[in-house]
Each structure stands twice: as structure tokens, then as C-alpha cells.
From TrEMBL:
Residues 62-259 form the Isochorismatase-like domain. CDD domains: cysteine_hydrolases (cd00431). It comes from Micromonospora lutea. It comes from the Bacteria. This is Isochorismatase-like domain-containing protein.
Amino acid sequence: MTHPHREIYARSPEGGVQLAASADRWYLTDDHVHLSPHHTEGRLMRFDAQLLPIVDNPSRGALIITDMQNDFCSPGGWTHRSGLDHKACREAIPGVQRAIEAARAHGMWIIWVYWHNRPDLRNLGAPTLYSFKHSPDQAGIGQDLDHGPVLLSDSWGAEIVDELKPYADEDDIHVEKVRMSGFVGTHLEQVLRTQGISTLFFSGVNTDQCVTTTMQDAYFLDYNAVLLTDATATSSPAYCKDAVIFNARNCWGFTMTTEAFASPTPYPAENG
């Protein structure tokens, strides 16, 4: 006899459909997606996400903050000096602040993911170097600008922006990366597995580059992925972020605002 939780597309107790099996299963209904029917200890909350609201246990979640660094967001940084729109990247700062406050209220981990490259650049191949240097006279990773080298470990450019430093806590997790994705060549997945984290809420810059590649890799690894739309920004044209939002909610997972992230409702509803 097949165990009920091992049958793909089985009928769920709520009258919907089971997706996947055992501890990885979801329950899909007409009006929400239950991400953790197997993990109900403590509290379940319903978040107003798109395409459908999600139900989850906040204890399984973490906020991922990507690349909120001077070289992307501050005057004199690499984005600014390369002629790109660093002010557009700064638009993510208030949303990231709200997201951090909400994640702490939910008891979630805060995970800072950011570029910290070796001074000798031996961990970088030509494709990655070219991403930051499209002409011989453009400053690339490791080369000097007014405030020092671009995105090197311990450089000004690699520091978290001043507006977010007061929001950091010594208990937060820091993951240094050397590719756009926060998963490639890092210990991010080990942290998530050992801490029992299954649902990731994504914020930071650039929405269409490091944020989306990390979100895609999370999806490929079967994490539950949620893009916080007003806590991300990009120096790219607006249609680039629009495309990420479309794919985030139609392919890789879900989207929601920081307001929805901060104000879920109990599940089932307290009034019955």
C-alpha cells in the first residue's frame, strides 16, 4: 500500500492537490499554497503572496540580503563610476530595512550575501571579470577607484552601506561570494541545511543579476523562494526587474511586498 504522503498529486486533506512527497510536499488549493504541512509545531502563518498566498512556519524561513554594498549603492562606488544608476540601487535600502525588521519579528535568520574577492583575483575567471570590465579603461574587480579597489575583501567598496550597518546583528550569518549566485562556491547551502531553513525571502541588488541568479539556484535546489519586490532594486532598465518579477511568481516561486512579509495572518484563521 502506498503511503499517502508519498503519492505525487494525491488529494490533500484540505481538498487540494499534493505536490511532491514526504517532507518536501506542498498542498496546493484554489486560494493558497501550504508550504509546510509536515511542519506545524509552533505557528503557521498565511502571507499575501502572488500568484497565490502561501502558508508556512516562519521558523523555517530566512531573509537573504544580497550585495547591499558601497560599490553598488554608494556615490563613488563601482556602479556610479561605471556610469550606471547607483541611485536606483539605493531605492532598495528602505525596503531592506523593513524586511530586516519583519524577519527579526518573525524570528527568522538574517543572511547577508555579498562579494568579497581575493586580492590576487585567482578565484575569478574571465567571464566574471568581463561582467565588471567591458572596456580597457573601465575599472574592474580589484582595480582602484577613489575609495580603493573594487569589491575586494576588506575594501570600502565591499562594505555594507552605512544605512544598513545599524540593522546588522552579531548573530546574523555572513556569506562571502565570488560569483553572481550566492550558492556557487560558498557555504550558503550548508548553513541552510544545518539550520533547517527551507523558505528564502530575497532582497537586495541587482534584482536581475545577483538576486535573481541566487533565487534561481535556490529554486533548482528545491528551496521555497520568495522575492520581496520593494526590497530589491537594479541599475538596469526597469523592464529587467519586471521580467524577474514575472518569472519569480510564475516559475521560481512567489513574490510579495515587505508589508505582506511583515503582516501575515494566523493559519487557520483565529476566528475559525
